[in-house]
Amino acid sequence: MRQPKSVKSLEDLGRVRLSENFFLRDFLYSEIAVIHGFPNIPDDPDLAIAAGSALCQNLLEPLQARFGKVSIRSAYRSSAVNHFGNINKLNCGRNETNHAGHIWDRRDAQGRMGATACIVVNRFVPWYERTGDWEAMAWWIHDHLPYSDMEFFPRLAAFNLQWREHPIRRIHSFIPPRRGVLTKPGMDNWAGKHELAYAAMLTKLGA
Hints:
Blueprint: H1 7-14, H2 31-36, H3 45-67, E1 70-74, H4 79-87, H5 95-98, E2 114-121, H6 125-131, H7 135-144, E3 149-152, E4 159-164, E5 170-173, E6 180-183, H8 195-205
Parallel strand pairs: 3-5
Antiparallel strand pairs: 1-2, 2-4, 3-4, 5-6
């Protein structure tokens, strides 16, 4: 598929169904693109569709099936949008670090395909705001879904959720007081199951 150059072709791209509940259009909105006039459109639509489909089918669909509505906070960024966001300190990493991340239509340095979406699990927000416990969701995903990387943020417990070929399975947080790496390969807490970390959350949410 070629990069869209007309309203109709962009509409057609947006109608591509990545999974049962998600269409590509759900992931193309960008505040940076809107405010600064960038088209947030994949250069390689086929790669973006393949990576986004894997993200939705392997991570977002099972997460939504278990916990209800998943809201997309930020997802696909074109290389131009991400670069502008990086050099203007708008919370975007360098393009090279976002290939197979927020830049879905570029493979990473190891040749892996991947995609990232920053999401909010709506039903989880009251639990987090009452308890401050973001780790419950992190550990549930770690135990149940084939993610590659997660990064948690203080507002609404929003988090970057990444699918990538040959996943790393690393969890990082920007939420005080537990900033830093929660787990990654080689840490003692990485292997095994972590049911005690999310049992109370599941009971409270009826999930």
